Amino acid sequence: MSDIAIYANGLGKRYRIGALTRQTTMRERLTYAMKAPVRWLGPNRNASSSGPRDFWALRGISFEMRKGEVVGLIGRNGAGKSTLLKILARVTQPTEGHAEIHGRVGSLLEVGTGFHPELTGRENTYLNGAILGMGKREIDRKFDEIVAFAEVADFIDTPLKHYSTGMQMRLAFAVAAHLEPETLLIDEVLAVGDIAFQKKCLGKMSEVASVGRTIVFVSHQLNQIRRLCEKVIWLDQGKIFQTGPTAQIAGAYEASMMNRSDGSAHVEGAPEIRNGFVSWEILEPRAENPNILNTLGTVRLKFVLRLSKPVSDAHHGIALYNHERQLMWGWGANNLRLAEGMHEFHYCFPTLPLRPGLYNWVVSLYDQGREIDAWSCLPEMVIATEVHQDRRDDWNGILNVPCGFGVRNLENAADAETVASARGKSV
Amino acid sequence: MAVPQTHAALAGAQNEFPSVHIAARRGWLALDLPELWAYRELLYFFVWRDIKVRYKQTVIGAAWAVLQPLMTMLVFSLFFGRLAKIPSQGLPYPIFYYCALLPWTYFQTATQTATNIVVDQQRVITKIYFPRVVLPISAVLSGLLDFAISFGVFLVMMVYYHMVPTRAVIWLPAFTLLAILTALGVGLWLSALNALYRDVRYVVPFLVQFWMFASPVVYPSSLVSEKWRWLYGLNPMTGVIEGFRWALTGHGQPPGILLAASSAAVLLLVLSGLVYFHAMEGTIADVV
User: Fold this and answer.
1) Which among A6, A145, A182, A188 is the top mutation candidate for probing chain B, defined by the most B β-carbons within 10 Å of its own β-carbon?
2) Which of A97, A109, A116 sits opposite B127 (nearest CB)?
3) Which of A176, A367, A422, B168 has its CA 20 to 30 A from that of B87?
């Protein structure tokens, strides 16, 4: 038996814009039929904007996933992520191409699918479980576990309509999390509930991933993707744009998102009139994009400053924030004397061992206490290094440092260097 | 610790859900019986939910299942019976009408539920795969509980009128099946159409009303001239209703030619419904 879990070959999905399928009443359809011959005779019927136009939401999608692989699907809105997931989940059919999924498939395109407000929590658990593909006996077996996970034991026989939104979400996720197919398709469903519950969900997902299940995961939250996925497929305009290891692709994707946003305006739009910082970049290591950092080694940065008049007693501050606006590091220099014109501020760090993600440099300049500029640098810095920390949510911190590990037995000199597994004996 | 259990569950599941092939759909019928069998528990849960939810937050609950045909029976007995003096095959009017209303009320409810079910369940349809044909089937089956309850009322009426069922009653399950299949055939067509054109939702109440007058609910089919009887029988509910009257009371004739025509019509209706539903099935999630 091969170890291929999902095999897709040339999948494509075409939608018709302004076509018959969009005309939802018979009158519209009749009107369309009446008009059609007229339009057909007309000179430029293809240019007619109200006529059917083909739109390929996906085209030529081919890939393979091995068993136990956890793959993230990323891409901008409308890139075709959800369409691809829907095709794999068989909710919608591909227009062309075909795919093969081995073993049972579970899809979580939404939490709480089929929940009915009039039914009790218990009844909804069974109903939702059945909709997700669990049998009655399977649900019987997991019922207590589900209720405990959802933390709704006291309300399990209360109609769902009396639940708070949070409770509904928790129950919905709990049912979904106990689904045990070999292949799981997940669409952005982790973005529910409060932070604590989200962490619990992510923890559960990592657990699911670690028992060798194949998972396809769509999310806009790259930190979730980084935590769960080893591989990423980047979709753009219905095509596979890049595939590869998460650290690399997610970083490149984040960088491209930055370039699309209006970050460059600060640099290009107003350099002549601006009195302050105009640009920044990573000098070393040099990546394709000067705002992506992909090493734990030496980092050199450059910040470009333009002054329209000289300053005699300046204070310069620099700070690094993560995307939750948590301060990572800050520093300052006093008594700077700077002439009019362009300057470059250079920084060198032996390492920036931070968890992958988006970071923001803030650089400022004050002259005799008056602010000249405080710039939240754009584009943001993307750290795209490999992850050297625990994948469990509660156990990954701010720092991303590789570490060595060893055990030394102090009682028995002969075994001076043993491995961790021998520890039980020595105690 | 959880791992062995997981593997056991997966091994069990594998037999029932072999590998999945995804491609543009081919074939004609929306009836993949092995697949439907694999999803039997989902069918059960859909029926169960419909029944559970139907009379929630009503004061008299399932009594509605009894009141509907009972009140209609009283109105019919009064107006069509006492006032219009429509012949009733020698049966008391309440029995005459209730016999017809039993299958008719079921058919009416089942058809309307089935018509709306694809649209009502669109959230589920656009999120999860299952054979879509499960939906109209569940709608048609969930009406059977109401049917059973109102049948209980009929038994009480039989005692009241001192009637004893004849041997013809063994045919009753066959006529019930015919009613179920008729509702299913119509439901398959209308639910798929309704997903495309919401007009259907508004047309159905009229359709059902006209259909009632085209069926021997308020009058016996003997009023229709012999020459056109076979054509009349193409309406499957004719065979069902006449069948119910005959099987429950022993009055009238066994609906021979009517039944043959009705069965043929039902077969055609269900098969064509399956074909149409199947043709729509692939795109339902895109258009619903």
Assistant:
1) A182
2) A109
3) B168
In terms of Cα–Cα distance, which of A128, A155, A152 is closest to A139? A128
CA dihedral over B75, B79, B154, B223, signed as positive or negative: negative
Enumerate the CATH 2.70.50.60 domain ranges in chain A, comma separated: 273-383
| C-alpha closest to that of A220 among A257, A183, A245 | A257
pLDDT at A361: 92
Alpha helices in A192-278 (DSSP H): 195-210, 222-228, 246-260, 265-268
Q: What is the amino acid identity at position B215?
A: S
- Average pLDDT over chain A reads 80
Q: What is the pTM of this model?
A: 0.71
Task: Count the residues in chain B.
Answer: 288
Residues of A in contact with B122 (CB under 8 A): none
Name the percent of chain A lying above pLDDT 70: 81
Residue A63 touches chain B, beta carbons under 8 Å: no
Please answer yes or no on whether B127 and A92 come within 8 Å at the CB atom: no
Instruction: Decide yes or no: CATH 3.30.413.10 for domain A273-383.
Output: no
In chain A, CATH 3.40.50.300 sits at 4-42+51-255
The fourth-level CATH superfamily of domain A4-42+51-255 is: P-loop containing nucleotide triphosphate hydrolases (3.40.50.300)
User: Measured between CB atoms, does A94 come within 8 Å of chain B?
Assistant: yes
